[in-house]
Amino acid sequence: MKTNAQIIYKTISISFLLLWLCQCCLAGSADEPISIGAWSDMTNDPIHGLNLRARLVYGEVTGIAGPLARVVYLDLQDCNSSVLNTMYVYYDPDSSESLLTCELRDVSGKKVPPSAVVYDGPVVKVGWLALPYDSILRINATLPGFGKAPDIITAGWNCWILPRGDTNDYYLSGTLNVTVPKGEPRPPQDTIPNAFEWQRTIKLPPVKIPAKSLSGK
User: Fold this and answer.
1) Any idea which of 11-20, 105-114, 126-135, 143-152 has the lowest mean pLDDT?
2) Is residue 23 scored above 50 in pLDDT?
3) What residues are paired with 73 via a beta bridge?
4) Residue 79: closest CA among 120, 114, 43, 46
5) Which end of the chain has fewer surrounding CB within 10 Å, N or C?
């Protein structure tokens, strides 16, 4: 009979495999992003005294079929002082409780309304993410079901269609709400010493979507 820890370990392993496969569909690299947003304020979870900060990253990748696609990444950084602690963050794009929401504004600060695009694709359930001491984890926050056309930019469930050849700069900001859904199994603290959960809300500073990338030049 499998223990809860074994079930959680299996779930985490499968989730990361699916996440990797999902990113392979947008074959490219996050090593050379076009724009990197500023780090958020360091946010403390008072229950366990854990500190975390996050930022948005923008890049472009070439898909399997060749077209250029916009991709938004979410960076999470462990800011804790103890080398013995492992911080767990729950991230699930399909959850109504633990969610990344974003907004897009033009150079004048005017909010760009989201586009009415029907989602048609898989949603990878990531679940628990482990951040060891002084580590940074980069997550692909672009869901594949909105399409990969060069005029589409998505972050979480937010989607915008921008005119091709647009010469305007845009700025993408967001809010990351990290809560654990009711009934969700916890990290296996019985097998991983000093495993702690982080739950709070982080305001993500804007990352620039430059006109150069939008115009394709």
Assistant:
1) 11-20
2) no
3) 57, 140
4) 43
5) N
118 token code pair: 């029907």
**CB neighbourhood size of 86 (10 A):** 19
Q: Per the structure block, which two tokens stand in for 69?
A: 């696609």
Domain boundaries, the chain: 4-215
Those residues with Cβ within 8 angstroms of residue 27's Cβ, 6 or more apart along the chain or in another chain: 61, 62, 63, 64
The tokens for 63 are 């898909």
**Percent of the chain clearing pLDDT 90 (strictly above):** 22
Burial of 125 (0-12, 13-18, 19+ CB in 10 A): middle
Three-state helix/strand/coil letters over 24-79 = HCCCCCCCCCCEECCCCCCEEECCCCEEEEEEEEEEEEECCCCCEEEEEEEEEEEC
Q: What confidence tens digit (pLDDT) does each residue in 175-197 have?
A: 998 888 777 777 765 455 555 67
Given this model, what pLDDT does residue 58 score? 92
Amino acid letter, residue 100: L
Closest CA to 150 of 36, 84, 62: 62
